[in-house]
Amino acid sequence: MPNTLKLAGSVAALALSLGGAALAETPSWCGPNPASLALVDGYGGNSWRLVTTASGAAEAALCPSITEYIYADGQGNTQKAISDINSIAARGINALVVFGDAGPAVLPAITN
Fold it and tell me: Which of 43, 55, 51, 48 is nearest to 100 (CA)?
């Protein structure tokens, strides 16, 4: 099951490291309605993926209408990545970003 990161707690340390000025501005992509966001990573075990995961959480924290940020790491396992996509979609997530490391194998889960 994917890890759920509640914006109030888990992103707080990262947000503090960005400085107060960056947090004061609401990004243009941030809409007025509550929404949930997920990042599904096919393999989150390298430095670049750790940076992108933190960046995604920090960006989501800038938008007050993002109520939930979910991250799932497929750990290089295609079946787990597919399961993560299906599981998060079944939860009714509003926006999903996928690092499709398994290529075409995850496409059916994404299109579903």
Answer: 43
